[in-house]
Amino acid sequence: MTSNASLDVFDLSFAYGKKRALDNVSFSVENGCFTALLGPNGAGKTTLYALITQLFESRQGGIKICGFDLKSQRKEALTRLGVVFQQPTLDLDLSVTQNLHYFASLHGLSASEANKRISRELERLDMLERKDEQVRSLNGGHRRRVEIVRALLHEPQLLLLDEPTVGLDVPTRRDIVNHIHALCQEKGIAALWATHLIDEVQLDDAVIVLHQGAIKAKGLGREIVEQAQTSDLASAYEIFTRRAS
Amino acid sequence: MSSNLYVTALFGILWREILRFVKQRERFIASLVRPLVWLLVFAAGFRAALGVSIIPPYETYITYEVYITPGLIGMIQLFNGMQNSLSMVYDREMGSMRILLVTPLPRWYLLLCRLLSATVVSILQVYTFLLVAWFFDIQMPVMGYVWLLPALIVSGLMLGAVGLLISSAIKQLENFAGIMNFVIFPMFFLSSALYPLWKMQESSELLFRICSVNPFTHAVELIRHALYGKFDGLSLAVTAGSLVFFLVLAVYGYNPARGFVKRMGS
Questions:
Q1: In a designed cystine with B62, which of B50, B66, B80, B202 is the match (CB 3.0 to 4.6 A)?
Q2: In chain A, where does the domain assigned CATH 3.40.50.300 lie?
């Protein structure tokens, strides 16, 4: 376990009845680092996220966020965690600002502090002029941006994103990927980005390949390519996920 | 900061529920029309068929409309509790409940906030209903409207807790309609909402006993007595006891390590 990690997952296992979804998974996400969690559908990514976000609880292994144990120091751990879920989680009947204020209140932010942060983060994603629009009237890309703004309001140190670009067009996907990379570099936030879309991952990103509930490879993108003895990440990913099948 | 977090979160959740309620106009109108139809149509037709004798808290003969008003207030809160439950199941299926669960607040507190918010919304519905009823000459003693408030808080919390418990036990949204029929109708009809219990006893001793132990009966009686400035200790005890019972089970149900939520896949 590393001391400068925003997320430490160690010896984590989870099963749905007799079906094992995660098998002894261990990895770390370093501070300020964009880490891609690559895996095909059914690899165990969503189960892993459900465990980190406390939707499920595992009896085997553990999770630490910024050094705080998720079970025994839940409050300290969750204060430092921001999440963008795979499913849309905004309230369609409320406006952008109302949605964001609701979330800010759940983290104890005063109205004035929330206003300041909401304007700042919306501005950063070119969404400020839409702040009074009803979420129902926004397109998928804009809704995703609002969810990213929401995940950042309480200034977390670790950002979890579960396939956040599913269903979005290529330019929007690229913008969002670039934005999260910029956040990691400028603000020192660590991001764990789950995806099965290989083009969202760069060679300098930390990469974890998850398949059939187990980690098949981890390291920088270029190291993964070397390990697989291929020329690009897409081929390396295919090799690791095929080899294991 | 810590107590601030709890208070801010409570007001945040409450404000969201009020906004949602106001914005969903159909829900607001439905919550008013349902009891008003019972009051203005059903009660008018039923008045001739059912004579109500003088029973506590009444000190004189009353019309049937006056008799069923507390029952309809209970009905508003019962439906609201189920509506909140439906919205919890919907939130869980659609994912927005996850946002609530990843906040640094304890789960039991978040459930309590949802429960309080639903109760506040139900109280707004009840007073709007009573205002409309007032214009149709169904009027209670003025102080009754004040005494009603604490009773509504207890009964609203209890019926909301029933809803929470149901939402924790339901796996899918599709199952909800069946549960509504198995909870709302028996709770409502097997109570003193529409007819005094002695009338029920004349027909069937068994039904009378079931009605007597139905927590909804006691919520309605608590409301009925409060409207006349009277205190019904037994009803308060049963309603408050049921509240604690249902709430503890609901908190258990929402615990990912032990409860009903554990059984769900993602």
A1: B66
A2: 1-80+157-174+188-245
Q: Which chain A residues contact residue B23 at CB under 8 A?
A: 93-94
Evaluate whether B5 touches A107 at the Cβ level (below 8 Å). yes
Mean pLDDT of chain B: 86
User: Rounded distance, CA A216 to CA A240, Å?
Assistant: 6
Indicate the CATH number for domain A1-80+157-174+188-245.
3.40.50.300
Could you state, in order of their start, the residue ranges of all structural domains in chain B?
A: 2-263
| pLDDT tens sequence across A83-110 | 998 888 898 889 999 999 999 999 999 9
Please list, residue by residue across B160-198, b when 16 or more beta carbons sit within 10 angstroms of its beta carbon and e when fewer do. bbbbbbbbbbbeeeeebeebbeebbeebbebbbbbbebe
A88 CB neighbours in chain B (<8 A) are 94-95
Collapsed DSSP state (helix, strand, coil) of residue A125:
coil
> Does the distance separating the beta carbons of B265 and A78 come in below 8 Å?
no
Using the Cβ of A107 and the Cβ atoms of chain B, whether some distance falls under 8 Å is answered with: yes
Dist. CA B225–CA B139, nearest whole Å: 15
Instruction: State the amino acid at position B235 in one-letter form.
Output: S
